[in-house]
What we know:
By secondary structure, the chain is α+β, with helices and mostly antiparallel strands. The protein contains eight helices and eight strands.
Amino acid sequence: RSGSSAASHRERVCGVFAGDEEATPAKIDDALAIGSDYRGLEFGCLTRIEDGVQRITQSTGSHDLLRAGETCPLEEAYCRRTLETEGTLSVQAAGSSDAVPTEAVATFGLETYIEATVTVDGDRHGTVCFADPDPRPEPFSDTEELFVELLAERIGNTIQRQSHEEALARRNDRLEAKSRRFEAIAETSPDVIFRVDDGGAFTYVSPAMERLLGYDPRSLVGESFAEAVA
Length: 230
């Protein structure tokens, strides 16, 4: 039954990240809800680790210290050990485990905990974790740990794609702003100013072209520079 449940939840996770309909935060919210539901753990969250500080970026459940925007020093966080671990960190009774800092248990009061590192562009971004205030009677299975690793991988890939898309959009905005400044200057220049693309076709011709050479600037856009001057 556990294997079937894992397969079903894996399919749900893959479905969340397969489409482009939802924005990245909504996909992560859905993924955290699926992860919490998988083993019946009360809390789930995505963290961002920067400059020795853990910040909760998204969460499910109602833990006061696991709400989006909450921060704490890394040495007081469960994820401190996760970041030092290959794969997944999981504990079934954190209060009696050497795997979790005592400061973290005292601060958050979570006994059951499973977490994996989220990587973006090959760098550590943060963690995805699921937890519960009650201890768990048995250790997490390999299947359960692999499920959390899958979530962490999908979330990291989604954040990475969003980051690349935002960087491309910023680059395009800068290029468009430069183009507008160029054309504003060219429109009032007494000299003929033009641009050509990599294939040698006009992409812009200033109004001075008509006054000085008798060509309609708009009719030249898209035409070959070599043919126009031949």
